[in-house]
Design a protein that fits this description.
The protein is mainly α. It folds into three domains: about 30-405, no CATH class; about 420-555, no CATH class; about 570-655, no CATH class. It is built from 28 helices and five strands. A five-stranded mixed beta sheet has the order 2-1-3-5-4. A hairpin with a 2-residue loop joins strand 4 and strand 5 (about 550-555). The longest helix has about 30 residues, at about 90-120.
Length: about 650
C-alpha cells in the first residue's frame, strides 16, 4: 500500500539480537522454517492408531472411498485415499501422518499471512516484520486447538490449512481489487488471478468443512470497507462465481459414489433428497442452538479453552494488538473480532462434546491479534523486546501444551474396540450406541484391517434413517431378513420423513424398536445376539441378559453361561481425563462389575471377587479438583465416573 514508506535496513538493535539471523530471510524461507520446527513436534505427539469420535469412520471411508457422515467431505476422502494407498505403512498411521503434515503446512501459511497483515498495519521493513510473523505463527501452531488437529486423521487437519490460506488469498485479492482503475471491471487484471484462486479455494474449503461459512460475516465486512460500498463489492464478486462453483465440484462425487453401493454410504446421496439432506446436515440440525441449557457449560468451556490456548500470558499481547488494530485499521479490527466472535457464538450453542475444532477460527483471529501485539511492542520498546516476547510466548505454548496434546500413547480406542470384538462369540450380532469409543473405530478395524469380519455391528441410532437400513440389508442380508414384516413396515414408515412429507415421529420411533426387537428375537435362533451395556433398558424382548466380555448376550433362558476372566490389553492414558476417557474406563469396570454380580447370583463368590478385583484395576484415580472445565456434560460424566469407582472400591476394599 502507498504511504507506508520504503523498506529500510534493519536497526542495529535488530542485528544485535540472537534472532538477527532472520533479518535477511524471505517470507517463503521463514514459512519453511516454521514447518520444519513444528512438524517434528507434531510427529512426536501424533496418535499412532485410531482416536475417539469420528476418526475410525473417516479412516475407513477414506481407505475404501466411502461416504462419511454429513457433509460428506469428498476432498478429504480423496486425499485420504491417496495417502493411505501411497505408502506401505499401516493405513491409519499413513492417514495420521498426512494429518500432521497438513497442520504443519498450515504453520507455514500462517507466516505468510501474518507477514502480509503486519505489512499493512505498520511500516517496518521485512527484516523486522518477518521474525515477528514467524514467532506469531509458531505461537498459533502450538495452541492446544491447532496442535490437536495434527494428532489424527480428521477433517480439521485440512481445515486448518485452508483457513489461513483462504484469508491470505482474500487479502491479496482485495489489495488489487481495491486499487482504482480508469476502465474495465474493478481491479487490475493481475488482481483477478488471485481473486479466482481465492474463490476456487473458498468452494474447495466448503467441500471439506461447511464451518468455513462462519467466516462470511468477517470477510464481507472487510471487503465492503475496502471496496467502498455494496455496488463495487457486488461487481467484484460476480466474476468470481465460476471459480467458486468449480471449487464445489468434488460434491458431485457423492451421488456418483452412492449409486455404486459402497460399504459406507451415509445419507444415500444418490437420491436428490438424500444429497440435499446430507449437504445441509439435516441429521445434526437439532444440535445447533438447541437451547439455553447448552449455552452455559459451552460458554464456560470456550472462555477457559481460548485463554489456555493463549498460554494465559498471551492475553496481554492479544489485547495490545486489538487496540493497535482498532486505532490504525478499524476494518481489520472489526473483521478479526468477527473471525473470533462468530465461531465462538456458534460453538456456545452447539450441543456436542467435541467442541475444540469449532474454535479454530477463533484461534486464528487471536493469532492475528498476538502478531499485531508483537508489532506494537516492537514500535514501543524495540525489536529486542518484541522478539524476546514472541519467542517466550511460542516456547511457553510449546511447554504448557505438550502434555495436553501428546496422544502418542493413547491406545484407548483401539484396545477397547479390539477387546470388545475379540471377546464376542463367532458370527455374533452386536447392538451398540458407543459411537465415540468403539463403533466408529469398528468400521476401520473390521473393513480395513479385517478384524472379526464375522461380527455384524449394528447402530440402533443410525437405524433411524432409511439409508442405514438399506446399507444393513446390503451388507448383512440374512440378518436383515430376520426383521421380517416388522422391518418392511418400519422401512415404509421412514419414507415420508426421507421425502420431506408429513410424518408421525412417535409412530416411527415405536416402529423402529418393534423392528429391532423382532430382529433380535429371530436372529438369536441362528446366531449370538449381544448389546453393550448402555442398551440394557432399551431392548424389550422376553430374554435374559448375560454379561459376556464387554457386552451383554441376549438369551431365551436363564441357564448359567460360563466365562473365564478375560485378559484384555488395556493401557491407561496416564495424566489425561475428560468425558471420553472417563467413559472408556467405566465401560471396562461396569462390565466386570456386572459379571461379578452374575457370578454371585449363581453361587460363585470366588469368581465374583475376581471380577471385582479386575474392575478396580481400571480405576483411573480421578481427582475432580484437577479436572478443568469440559464441554457440555463432560464434567458431570467425569464426576459420575469418579463416584462409580468410589462405590466400587467399597465393594472390593482389599483389591489393588
Amino acid at each position: 500500500m502507498s504511504g507506508l514508506g520504503p523498506p529500510r535496513a534493519p536497526s542495529p538493535r535488530a542485528r544485535a539480537h540472537p534472532l538477527a539471523a532472520l533479518a535477511g530471510v524471505s517470507p517463503a524461507r521463514a514459512a519453511g522454517l516454521a514447518l520444519a520446527l513444528v512438524l517434528p513436534l507434531y510427529l512426536c505427539t501424533m496418535n499412532r492408531t485410531i482416536g475417539f469420535i469420528d476418526r475410525g469412520e473417516l479412516a475407513a471411508t477414506a481407505y475404501t472411498l466411502g461416504i462419511p457422515h454429513p457433509t460428506g467431505y469428498p476432498t478429504l476422502t480423496f486425499l485420504g485415499w491417496i495417502a493411505s494407498h501411497l505408502t506401505p505403512l499401516r493405513p491409519v498411521l499413513a492417514l495420521n501422518l498426512f494429518a500432521a503434515l497438513m497442520v504443519a503446512a498450515s504453520a507455514a501459511v500462517l507466516v505468510l499471512l501474518f507477514d502480509h497483515l503486519l505489512g499493512r498495519v505498520g511500516s517496518q521493513p521485512p527484516a523486522e516484520r518477518i521474525p515477528l510473523a514467524l514467532l506469531a505463527s509458531l505461537f498459533t501452531a502450538l495452541t492446544v486447538t491447532w496442535w490437536d488437529q495434527a494428532n489424527g486423521f480428521e477433517v480439521y487437519a485440512l481445515h486448518v490449512l485452508f483457513l489461513p490460506l483462504l484469508l491470505l488469498l482474500f487479502l491479496r485479492w482485495l489489495d488489487g481489487a481495491s486499487e482504482p482503475v480508469e476502465s474495465g471491471p474493478p481491479g487490475p487484471r493481475a488482481a483477478r488471478v488471485p481473486g479466482g484462486a481465492f474463490a476456487f479455494l473458498l468452494g474447495l474449503s466448503l467441500t471439506n468443512h461447511m464451518t468455513t461459512v462462519l467466516w462470511a460475516p468477517g470477510l464481507l465486512v472487510f471487503a465492503y470497507a475496502r471496496l467502498g460500498g455494496f455496488r463495487r463489492l457486488l461487481a467484484s464478486v460476480v466474476p468470481l462465481i465460476p471459480a467458486f462453483l468449480l471449487g464445489l465440484l468434488p460434491y458431485a462425487w457423492l451421488p456418483i459414489r452412492s449409486a455404486m453401493g459402497p460399504r459406507f454410504d451415509w445419507g444415500g446421496t444418490h437420491t436428490l433428497h438424500g444429497l440435499i439432506d446430507h449437504l445441509t446436515a439435516r441429521e445434526f440440525r437439532s444440535w445447533m442452538f438447541s437451547g439455553a441449557a447448552t449455552v452455559g457449560p459451552q460458554l464456560r468451556y470456550v472462555a477457559y479453552h481460548l485463554a489456555r490456548d493463549l498460554g494465559w500470558a498471551g492475553v496481554v499481547p492479544a489485547l495490545l494488538g486489538a487496540v493497535l488494530l482498532a486505532r490504525r485499521r478499524p476494518a481489520l479490527a472489526a473483521t478479526t473480532a468477527l473471525l473470533i466472535g462468530v465461531p465462538a457464538l456458534f460453538a456456545c450453542g452447539y450441543h456436542i462434546r467435541e467442541l475444540e475444532s469449532y474454535l479454530l477460527g477463533c484461534v486464528l483471529g487471536l493469532g492475528i491479534l498476538v502478531a499485531a501485539g508483537l508489532l506494537g511492542i516492537l514500535e514501543r520498546f524495540g525489536s529486542r523486546w518484541a522478539l524476546a516476547t514472541g519467542l517466550c510466548l511460542a516456547a511457553l505454548n510449546g511447554v504448557l501444551h505438550w502434555h495436553d496434546c501428546d496422544e502418542s500413547r493413547n491406545r484407548l480406542v483401539e484396545d477397547l474396540t479390539t477387546n470388545e470384538l475379540e471377546s464376542l462369540p463367532p458370527r455374533a450380532v452386536l447392538f451398540t450406541r458407543q459411537w465415540d469409543y468403539s463403533l466408529a473405530a469398528s468400521y476401520y478395524f473390521q473393513e480395513v484391517e479385517g478384524l472379526r469380519r464375522d461380527v455384524v455391528v449394528v447402530s440402533p441410532d443410525l437405524l433411524r434413517y432409511g439409508w442405514y437400513v438399506d446399507e444393513l440389508a446390503r451388507r448383512a442380508p440374512a440378518l436383515w431378513a430376520c426383521a421380517g414384516l416388522e422391518g418392511a413396515e418400519y422401512r415404509a414408515a421412514l419414507r415420508p420423513f426421507e421425502r420431506h412429507r408429513p410424518f408421525a415421529a412417535g409412530a416411527i420411533q415405536a416402529a423402529r424398536w418393534t423392528c429391532i426387537d423382532s430382529l433380535c428375537a429371530r436372529a438369536m435362533r441362528q446366531r449370538p445376539v449381544l448389546c453393550t451395556s448402555e442398551m440394557d433398558t432399551l431392548l424389550r424382548g422376553p430374554w435374559t441378559q448375560v454379561p459376556i466380555g464387554l457386552a451383554l448376550e441376549l438369551r431365551p433362558d436363564s441357564a448359567y453361561r460360563a466365562e473365564s476372566p478375560p485378559r484384555y490389553r488395556f493401557e491407561p492414558w496416564v495424566g489425561h481425563m475428560d468425558g471420553f476417557i472417563a467413559t472408556t474406563h467405566w465401560i471396562y469396570a461396569s462390565s466386570f462389575a456386572r459379571r461379578a454380580d452374575y457370578e454371585r447370583a449363581h453361587g460363585r463368590p470366588g469368581l465374583c471377587r475376581r471380577y471385582l478385583e479386575l474392575a478396580t484395576r481400571v480405576d483411573p484415580g480421578i481427582r475432580l479438583d484437577r479436572v478443568p472445565p469440559l464441554p457440555l456434560d463432560g464434567n458431570p460424566i467425569v464426576a459420575q465416573t469418579a463416584g462409580f469407582f468410589a462405590r466400587l472400591s467399597r465393594r472390593a476394599p482389599n483389591s489393588p
